[in-house]
From TrEMBL:
Keywords: GTP-binding, Magnesium, Metal-binding, Nucleotide-binding. It comes from Scleropages formosus (Asian bonytongue). It comes from the Eukaryota. This is Putative GTP-binding protein 6. GO terms for cellular component: cytoplasm.
Amino acid sequence: MNFRSLRDNFEPDCADDSGNKRLLPEVVMLPPCLKTCFVFSAQFGTSPRKKHSAEEEGVQGGADVHEDFDILEDSEVEELFQQQHILTKVGSEDHRVLVVHPDVKWGSKKPQLTTAELMMAEAVGLVNTLQNWTVLDKVILSTKAPDRRTIFGKGNFKILTERIKGKPQITAVFVNVERLSPASERELEEAWGVKVLDRYSVVLHIFRCNARTKEAKLQISLAEIPLLRSRLKDEVAKLDQQGGGSRYIMGSGETFMEVQQRLLKERELKIRSALEKLRKKRQLLRSQRKSREFPVVSVMGYTNCGKTTLIKALTGDVKLQPRDQLFATLDVTVHGGQLPSRMTVLYVDTIGFLSQLPHQLIDSFSATLEDVAHSDLIVHVRDISHPETLNQKVNVLNVLKNLQIPECLMNSIVEVHNKIDLVDNYEQSEPDAVPVSALKEQGLEELKQRIEAAIVKSTGKHILTVKVELSSAQLSWLYKEATVQEVDVVADEGTALVKVIISNMRLVKVRFPQSTHSAA
Ligand SMILES: Nc1nc2c(ncn2[C@@H]2O[C@H](COP(=O)(O)OP(=O)(O)OP(=O)(O)O)[C@@H](O)[C@H]2O)c(=O)[nH]1
Ligand SMILES: [Mg+2]
C-alpha cells in the first residue's frame, strides 16, 4: 500500500478528542527525487489545514533559505555592505598579480604538515578564484622574520623589488601572510608602486564577490571592521605627520580620529544588531525543525572538498550549484534527504575552511556556524585526492574544536573520503572513513547507511514495527508521536503492521505489541 492510499484511507481516523479534524500528514516539499514519498509530520492540530512544508522551515528547494528573511530591508543591508573608502584598495578592478610566499624554514613560525610549494599553490588558487584576476608571476622567498615590516631581509627584499619593477604589467602583489600591518602595507606599496594584499584582504574580497544573502553580506561587513580600524589608525598617523589628524573638527568638539572612530563603532553596532535579528530567526527555524524531529546533519570540510556536490548527490537537489572555486558556499543552506529506512534528514551545507584563515574572519561567521553545534551529526568531507588532505583534516578539526562543538558530536563525526575517482588505486587508509565519489555518485548507499546508524545512535531513536488495532487510536497516536514509514494493513484481522522511527522518550509510552524491534 502506498502512502497516498494510506492517507486517503485513514483520513476519517484523524479527529482529535474534541472532534476536530486533525491535520493529516503533509507532503514535505523536498527535492524531486523525494517528492513521491510522504513524510508524516508529527504535527497534528485543531486549526484548519496548515501546511508545514520543509521550505517553511528553511529547507531548500535550492533557493536561498535566508532570502526569506523579511525582517531586514534590502536597502538596510546594502547600505551596511557598501565598501568603505578605506577598503576600496582591492576595488572592483581586475588585477594581474605577483604572488609571493614568504618561506619560514626555522623556528616556531615554520608551518607544520605542509610545504612552501603547497602553500603557494593554495595562494594561487585563491587569486584564480577571482574573476578577471590572473597570476602573472609567483615566487617563494625565504625569510627568518616574516613579522618585520618588509617581510624579507635586505637581500631578498631587493631581489623581489627588482622582479616587480621588471614586470610593469603587475598591478598587485599578494604577500601570502595572514595579515600585514597597515604600516607594512604602506611601506611595501611605496617601495613597489603597486597594490599590496594579504590573505585577509584577498579572502575578504572573494567573500564579497560570492556573498548572496543578507546574512553573508552582514558577516563580511563585520569582518571588515578590524581592517577599517587598523587602516583608520594608519591614516590618522599619516595625517598627524602632516599636522592634521588630531585637530578638532570645527564646532563638533571631536577630532577627526574621534569622529571616524565613533562612526565605525556605530556601523559595527548596526551590523551586530542586524545580525542578531537574523540569528533570532535562525533560532526559530532551528526550534521548528527540532520540534518536527528531522535530524540535522551538518556537512563540513575544507573549501572545495565537495560538500555541496555531496549534498546534491545525497538529496537530488538539482538547484545546488557546486563550483570549482574556493568559498563557493558562503551561506548555510538546508536540504532535505532520505536515509535507507526512509527517515528524512536535513543536510546543512556550510562555508568551507581554509588554513590560516584569520580568526576575526571565522568569528564573524560563527553565528552561521552556530547551527553546527545544534546538529545531530557532523559529516566531515575530505578531498582525498588533494596533496594536502591530511593538513586540511587537521585544520578542520582544529576549527571545530575552537567552535566549541559538544564532545558527543565531535566523537561521532562521520568522515568521508571524497573524490576517490581522482585517486589511482585508492586504498582506504582509515578504516572508519567512508570512501565516495560525490560527482560519480559512488559509495552513497554505504554513506547513507553510516549516517543513519549514527543518527539513530545520537538521537536515541529506534526503528521498529508495531502491530496496531485499526479500531483504536493507536495509529493516529503513532502518526502524532513518531515517523510512520510503512503501514501494512491486515484487513481480515482489523490490524496493521506499522514501521516507525520513534524516539527513546516516546518509545516508553508505546503499550501495544511490537512485532519486530530494531533499535538499529
Ligand atoms: N572528480 C571529482 N570532483 C568532485 C567530486 N566532488 C566534488 N568535485 C568537484 O570539486 C569542486 C568543488 O565542489 P563543491 O561541491 O563546490 O565543493 P565545496 O566543498 O562545496 O566548496 P566550497 O563551498 O567552495 O567550500 C567542483 O568542481 C566539483 O565538481 C568528486 O567526487 N570527484
Ligand atoms: Mg559549497
